[in-house]
Amino acid sequence: MTGTGSFTRVMLADDHAIVREGYRSLLQKQDRLRVVAEAADGADAYRVYKEARPDLVIMDISMPGIGGVEAIRRIRQWDNSARILVFTMHQSAAYAVQAIKAGARGFVTKSSPPDALLRAIGEVMAGRLALSPDIDHELAINQLAGEPSAVDALSPREFEILRMLLAEKSVSDIAETLHISFKTAANTRYLIRAKLGVASDIELVRLALRQRIIAAEDIGS
Length: 221
Hints:
By secondary structure, this protein is of the alpha/beta class. It has eleven helices and six strands. A six-stranded parallel beta sheet has the order 2-1-3-4-5-6, sandwiched between helices.
């Protein structure tokens, strides 16, 4: 499990400093892992990655501004060999599938034991896809669901805009955050609704609840 030199150079991307400190402490205890860079949001993760060129990125998926899916997409566009492992509280198959579509090579939930994260790091560095057991289970359940999945219909960029719409961001806010035109953001919102077969924001929220993209307690928070 080595990157450049005798150890794997790791970058952490998470908006909670206490969380970063916790898994920095875990990783630094491993002989062949070194934390060399950190980022607190998606845009920062993209910038810091280009500066630090780590062997592995461990990234949360819910961060201020652009989320993890969009950050993964941007990093992989800039460096298609980037190794990115998602470490997140989200136990939804929707997030796992979108992260992998965007270019992540692993998805581990924060409810997993520490050794699950360490095993996933080894798998990703060996060039294999790594999923925590709970996500494996969620993906199996998702495949058996009768309703067409929002995940399968949307691109990672569309999923990022969906996530922002569900967080009650306006089209103007979305355009500004993603550095796209208002027209592009508005057209994408229309395309998302069309792909998902919904006619209103209320129907969009209901679909997101059914497919566990959001939880009921997230609404209005």
